[in-house]
Amino acid sequence: MQEEAQNTTPQLNVEGAVKDILETIDRDREREIISRRFGLFDRRETLEQIGELLGITRERVRQLEKAVITRLKTAAEADLPHIKEVEQALGAHLNEMGKVSA
Asked: How much is the CA Rg of the chain, to the nearest whole Å?
């Protein structure tokens, strides 16, 4: 009788991790742009749609999005909340799915 393989993938609250990471963005408008552009809590929206909502041009939305993503990438190397847990969970999941990350 073979023992059933145990799931060793670390469990992760993705929604909680996303919310905590979004909290690191200081300005509400920038947080709103990232949430809407990537469809984090609803559907994805275009630069034009977000610009109309916020009363700014789509080019300004693009500029703000780029600036926030750059800051998040820099912060990810240092101290974003949950980033290590996310990295471990994704790596373990990929490993279990066929050692894709190895």
From this structure: 18
